[in-house]
Amino acid sequence: MPIEDRDDAYLITHALAKDTLSKLRDVETEQVAFRKGLVKLGRICGYEIIDGAMGTEYVSIQTPLEETTGERVKGLDNVVIINVLRAATPFVEGLLKAFPRAKQGVISAGRNEEAGMNEDGEFPITIDYVKLPEISEKDTVIVADPMLATGSTMCTVLDHVLAEAPDYENLFVLSAVSAPDGLLRVGEQFPQADLLTVAIDDYLDDDGYIIPGLGDAGDRAFRTK
Ligand SMILES: O=P(O)(O)OC[C@H]1O[C@H](OP(=O)(O)OP(=O)(O)O)[C@H](O)[C@@H]1O
Ligand SMILES: O=c1cc[nH]c(=O)[nH]1
Ligand SMILES: [Mg+2]
């Protein structure tokens, strides 16, 4: 079973996903390998979403020799992927290999780390840019961000995504590494979303970093520190 149902999330358990995430965690993995790893992980997660959540339908196929029955993934033309800048950019590049015809939305969201976490364990989030495609009831929406820490970013992003359609249900939140606090926060505020992740880590440190995590995904992919 490639996707395992846990109480707080669905775990993507494909062996290559675990292998790729382990390379991403390694402090010795430098920028290029880190970015490529995020692309690869996005592709694997995309394939797993297709396999575990979308299913196939039978279609009639004419081979060069005779007519037969084949299978086609259902709903591949009705996928929306939301890229949460900045760390999700390489992750989304990988997802697009699985969903090449997806409509894409972009939301630039950043944690105000200087302000720090408030007493409820939330960061103030600055949103600089929002450009979303029209989302229809038929669409499967995947909001991708490799890191789900306190969940402050994802909750703010989902507020924007669902502004026009608050009851929208065909919704996946996809991350590579999640902290229990973030899963809890997003799960409570957006019970209609299915939370998908490759790993649920142990806890958040005092600066809101996931432990053991993989460090700062944006900084490692973009070499900003
Ligand atoms: O769950 P949260 O506590 O909100 O943390 C997760 C967010 O933090 C990181 O982004 P960051 O703010 O570092 O911006 P960046 O992607 O530009 O590096 C990460 O990419 C998530 O978007
Ligand atoms: O551990 C963390 C937490 C937030 N953002 C990251 O990139 N890493
Ligand atoms: Mg971010």
UniProtKB/TrEMBL annotation:
Domain of life, source organism: Archaea
MF GO annotations: GTP binding; magnesium ion binding; uracil phosphoribosyltransferase activity
Cofactor binding summary note: Binds 1 Mg(2+) ion per subunit. The magnesium is bound as Mg-PRPP.
Regulation: Allosterically activated by GTP.
One record GO biological process: UMP salvage
Binding site for GTP: 36-40
Pathway(s) per entry: Pyrimidine metabolism; UMP biosynthesis via salvage pathway; UMP from uracil: step 1/1
Residues reported in the UniProt entry to bind 5-phospho-alpha-D-ribose 1-diphosphate: 86, 111, 145-153, 216
Binding-site list for uracil: 210, 215-217
Keywords: Allosteric enzyme, Glycosyltransferase, GTP-binding, Magnesium, Nucleotide-binding, Transferase
CDD domains: PRTases_typeI (cd06223)
HAMAP family the record matches: Upp_A
Protein function: Catalyzes the conversion of uracil and 5-phospho-alpha-D-ribose 1-diphosphate (PRPP) to UMP and diphosphate.
Family to which the UniProt record says this protein belongs: Belongs to the UPRTase family.
The protein, known as: Uracil phosphoribosyltransferase
Annotated source species: Halogranum gelatinilyticum
